[in-house]
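Quarterly update, task 2.4: CU-O-CU linkage-bound model.
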Amino acid sequence: MVFSRRELLLGAATTAVSGLSLPSRLAFAAGRFANTLKIPTLIEGKPGEGGKLFELGVQAGMSKFLPDVSTPTIGINGAYLGPAIKCSAGDRVSIRTRNNLTEPTTLHWHGLHIPARYDGGPHQVVEPGAVWEPSFEIKQKASLCWYHSHLMEGTGEQVLRGLAGLFLIDDDESRSLNLPSEYGVDDIPLILQDRRFNREGSFEYLSTMGDIEMGYEGDVIVVNGTVDPHVMLRRQRTRLRVLNGSNSRIYMLGRDDGADLVIIGSDGSLLERPVRQRRVRLGPGERIELLIDMQPDQTVTLMSYPVIAGAMGSGMMMRGMRGNSETFPIIELRAGQLETSDLSIPERLIAVPNWNPAKAERTRIITLDMAMMGMGRMGGPEMDGPMGINGRSIDINRIDLRIPLGDVEIWEIRNTTPLTHPFHIHDVQFRVLDRAGALPQPYEHGLKDTVLVDPGSAVRIITEFSDFADPDHPYMYHCHILEHEDAGMMGQFVVV
Ligand code: C2O
Ligand code: CU
Ligand code: CU
């Protein structure tokens, strides 16, 4: 059974919702790491008029995840996921996007600071057979960004079926650091996803109300489309670029040998300096860059551990009930013989842009609301849908915020619901000022576009809305649990 947003709305209004406590049992826990990690193809564009031309075709196909069965999927230039787009700050790029599906889609450039009409959100639908060619300049720091479907009420399903890929940006500053940067060799992307499968091989999606309320979680971990993966490392030092491309699962990354992770990057930039920590929490839409040093013949498993709640409150119980409480392997890193690497890490990596809170034009209060779970309306006064922001579900015809061009703003994102939500803003990269009044984690001190907001907590971010004003084309802000976004926890702003 599949619930539409409308059925969900009715269900939430009339019944106490069941499915709160669906235990997620990770089917895949064998950890034999039998399969070689797939690496998405890197594309650097062809010289075209006025810049680099990238060609993307969104298409349907069949993919092999499980033995004996195949899975219908969609992908970009392939059956599942898409190529990694690589470019440099200052490049002009055009991305010729053809929709070869029999259904509409969109491709949104998550993390990119570009004009709203090229953003690829729900307003830039590409109909079946149509071509859409956004063209823009790369005006931002070296970072791991990504792209994915952003179809109104259909993002969760299209991303689940495979519409996502990486967008790698470098710049002179990052190149001068001698970080590992040979793609697929010592610079390896890891797209973390989780999936559930029906017996005949298709993805199982929205089969319970809990899938929407709590967000969809799978019981099979898939990395770059590979189940039960290992990767052979060939150099002493490897850079791992990790994207949480899951619909809703939050990972608590760590090494099985208990050694610290060395974190050098966040969503939208490298960090000021490397951070060493045993565990890193990574929510949907967030990225982290790691350095891993290996000895010859060493094996390290990248794991996910139970999330230790930062904030106490009513959310504790809920989060313990599903997901996030499990320990499971993600990928095995294997070393054979190793070529030597430069093992020095500069103490200072880059200068991360920052804004002075005292200079902020205003503070906006953004409240994440859920009117469900059989617990009445939570967070919002008079919600007009199952989920919303500041008491309102997304209305594609309503502009929620008008932001003056050049504004430096603080957004205080409040969460009165019992779940942790990854909050994302289009157009900008921000700094996290504080979480429940305390400093954010050291690995959150880079530029970010997505941040986890815990139950009963508030996160303050600061950013500047620069460069692109357009009264007619909005940008989105939303929860990056894709089922929450599809259920209405999204708003839109124009920069004017
Ligand atoms: Cu990753 Cu509005 O998107
Ligand atoms: Cu985005
Ligand atoms: Cu959410």
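Highlight for this quarter: Residues 5-25, 310-323 have pLDDT under 50 and may be disordered.
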